[in-house]
Amino acid sequence: MSSELAALPSGFPKLDRRELLSYASAFGTAFLVAQGLMSSADAALLEQAAPAKAPTGKKYDMKKSINLWAFPYPDKMTLKQCFELAKDAGFDGVEVNYNLEGDLSPQTSEAELEAIGDMARKIGIQISGVCSFLFWPYPLTSNDAERRAKGRELALKMVHAAKHLGTENLLVVPGAVYIPWAPEKEPVPNDVCEKRAREALQAVLPVAEKLGVYLNLENIFANGFLFSPQEMNAFVDSFKSDHVKVHFDTGNIMQFQFPEHWVDICGKRIKNIHLKEYSKLAGTEFKLESFRPLLDGTINWPAVLESLDRVGYRGYLTFEYFHPFPHWPEALIYQTSDSLDRMLGRKS
């Protein structure tokens, strides 16, 4: 960079290249020049991309998993075909999704659930956890008492489903002040949201403890509830139960925060993980397209992996993605497995 930055008025620390890149990304170099924060020569230099930090090559002892939403299931592939593809691609586990209808739903018998778990293990794949979109249309904290009751009923069914599938992990969305894609007529006040979430979880927890299933509370990007890792920790700890943990999603807080900070603060409370990619290049606009295929975003993965290793996490890293490739959908599965191998130091 030119020496002009050093000529800033006394008492004003000069901005380093990383800061300038950040400001330039948000406002443009011309704006920074107009504010006197850099010269035109500096602006020209900033147009060159900053070199990426080289991977460390360190090996991490964590397991590879993928959510079924990344597969064209059930329209183009069966559950068995998904498990077989995941196994062939090199995954250790698959996270399944509980729906209102289909292979994994309230209509599925205990024997059928056990058969699905046995099928996965026979193929060589573990069920890494149970996830569900149903926590959104039937929130545990809804203003509609009937929806709250339905959500609690479904949560109990999911606990039993997890047990019979042979997994100890159930992802739970604890509640929402606001749901951008399906807003209630009135938002739920934060204190009311916390009260309702606590009541719902306390009702489900005894069954989860008895069956050996963990209620892993997910941090969400747009629900207006449990915004910080400190809030998440306090809420989880308040149950005084080893069966209430954190399902940490790396992409869900990337709009304004950074996953490596959450990992260090939540620490041992983290029981399961969604390894979701996110691009801050989308700005602060809310849209699912901000979530990207793995490594096609702005998450500092070396920092995230180091923080996970530092807190002793050795569980599943589950890639979650909502848009299966319309053509050659298996490509996304193999690409993701390859990316995870490189991130975990299994491949250079």
Number of domains: 2
Radius of gyration in whole Å, from Cα? 22 Å
Low-confidence stretches: 1-7
CATH topology of the largest domain: TIM Barrel
What distance separates the N and C termini?
33 Å
Helix content: 25-40%
CATH classification class of the largest domain:
Alpha Beta
Largest sheet: 8 strands, parallel
- Hey, roughly how much beta strand do the residues contain? 5-15%
Number of strands: 10
SS-based structural class? alpha/beta
Which architecture of the largest domain does the CATH hierarchy give at level 2? Alpha-Beta Barrel
Shape: globular
Look at the structure and give the mean pLDDT. Answer: 90
Q: What is the N-to-C order of secondary-structure elements (H for helix, E for strand)?
A: HHHEHEHEHEHEHEHEEEHEH
Strand order of the largest sheet: 3-2-1-10-7-6-5-4
Work out the helix count.
Answer: 11
Tell me briefly what this model is.
By secondary structure, this protein is an alpha/beta fold.
